[in-house]
């Protein structure tokens, strides 16, 4: 994703239709991230809040719908002058900070993000707000963290840049899928979207387990994605050959790599073995002594239809692949043989996979 701070563009009617659809709301209610959306014109008012938003904010959606953000409780922590959650949302963009909110008779910490969504004419149409429960921190640890942030301002900017990219990617996933599915009663599009969001959820969990800031063990991460896809789309007689090396990459490389693997394995399980009694999918991720890295995703299915290429220009998969190629300075080769299967190979240097993106 680009490091530009320009808002995500969307046809406002697409989001409006999606928010009126029970199936789309039910899908958002299953996401373990608190999500709320406000419409900016003529006066900003909240038009949707999922169940997790209700849980974290301690307010029923009926008490915030139709109102602005000022009714949200909570005050910022770890900054010189405290601001309310509502003030931060309406006055800020991207990562807003950590807030203390009343919760079940006590208090809890949440991290907050905000993103403006433009319509096709470039006019601000919606605001998307996301809240995530923050791990409790002892005051002494918080003071140490604040001192480290003051000493390492450049690292903080890089971390905020990565968070911004991830929020934009999640917004883009929902936007493109909602526009692509004409009939919202169809489960196919939302099923695929659920797989992409799960891949991002696994990434955030891996970040929480990682010792190095902003780095992920790609071998472990891809193994978890492969297992999740096989569970979600289990097909009798289809076997997975999984071989991965342990090696660290930046979040900006791990995110699109995981989404590419999720996309390819899902496609194989849904389409590559139609009319067949069995088959195999292999996922190999390996390094060599020269510092090179190679990932291969292979199936022995029917191959791509004649005249069809992957990724298809204009589709979300093409955006994800372009992000991977740019972020890791990678090369990708796609081959397909009718009735013999499809192979995708991605190669890059481990040094490129660890290098953080430029922050503009």
Description of the molecule:
Strands 1, 2, 3, 4, 5, 6 and 7 form a seven-stranded mixed β-sheet that branches. The chain has a five-stranded mixed β-sheet with strand order 9-11-12-14-13. A two-stranded antiparallel sheet has the order 8-10. Helix content is 43%, strand content 26%. The protein contains twelve helices and 14 strands. It is of the alpha+beta class and 360 residues long. The chain starts with 7 loop residues before the first strand and ends in a 6-residue tail after the last helix. The N terminus is likely disordered. It folds into two domains: 167 residues, Beta-Lactamase; 168 residues, Heat Shock Protein 90. It is globular and about 60 Å long.
- Computed CA radius of gyration, to the nearest angstrom: 21 Å
- How many β-strands, per DSSP? 14
CATH topology of the largest domain: Heat Shock Protein 90
- Major sheet description: 7 strands, mixed
In the residues, how many domains can be counted? 2
CATH class of the largest domain reads Alpha Beta
User: Percent range for helical residues?
Assistant: 40-55%
Average pLDDT: 76
Stretches with pLDDT under 50, minimum 5 residues: 1-12
Tell me the CATH architecture of the largest domain: 2-Layer Sandwich
What's the N-to-C terminus distance? 13 Å
Succession of helices and strands: EHHEEHHEHEEEHHHEHEEHEEHEEH
Overall spatial form: globular
């Amino acid at each position: 994703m680009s490091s530009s701070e320009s808002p995500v563009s969307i046809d406002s009617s697409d989001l409006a239709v999606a928010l009126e659809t029970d199936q789309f709301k039910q899908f958002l209610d299953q996401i373990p991230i608190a999500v709320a959306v406000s419409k900016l014109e003529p006066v900003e008012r909240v038009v949707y809040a999922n169940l997790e938003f209700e849980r974290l904010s301690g307010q029923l959606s009926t008490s915030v719908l139709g109102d602005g953000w000022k009714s949200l409780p909570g005050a910022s922590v770890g900054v010189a002058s405290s601001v309310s959650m509502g003030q931060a949302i309406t006055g800020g963009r991207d990562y807003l900070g950590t807030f203390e909110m009343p919760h079940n008779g006590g208090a809890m910490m949440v991290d907050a993000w905000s993103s403006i969504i433009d319509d096709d004419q470039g006019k601000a149409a919606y605001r998307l707000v996301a809240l995530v429960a923050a791990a409790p921190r002892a005051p002494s640890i918080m003071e140490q963290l604040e001192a480290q942030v003051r000493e390492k301002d450049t690292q903080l900017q890089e971390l905020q840049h990565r968070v911004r990219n991830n929020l934009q990617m999640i917004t883009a996933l929902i936007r493109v899928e909602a526009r692509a599915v004409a009939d919202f009663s169809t489960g196919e599009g939302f099923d695929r979207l659920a797989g992409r969001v799960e891949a991002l959820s696994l990434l955030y969990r891996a970040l929480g387990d990682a010792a190095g800031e902003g780095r992920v063990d790609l071998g472990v991460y891809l193994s978890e994605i492969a297992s999740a896809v096989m569970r979600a789309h289990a097909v009798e007689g289809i076997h997975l050959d999984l071989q991965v090396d342990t090696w660290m990459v930046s979040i900006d490389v791990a995110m699109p790599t995981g989404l590419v693997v999720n996309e390819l394995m899902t496609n194989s399980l849904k389409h590559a073995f139609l009319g067949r009694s069995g088959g195999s999918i292999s996922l190999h991720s390996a390094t060599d002594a020269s510092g090179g890295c190679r990932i291969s995703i292979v199936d022995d299915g029917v191959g791509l239809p004649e005249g069809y290429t992957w990724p298809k220009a204009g589709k979300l998969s093409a955006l994800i692949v372009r992000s991977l190629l740019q972020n890791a300075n990678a090369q990708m080769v796609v081959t397909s043989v009718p009735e013999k299967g499809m192979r995708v190979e991605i190669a890059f240097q481990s040094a490129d996979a660890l290098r953080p993106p430029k922050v503009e």
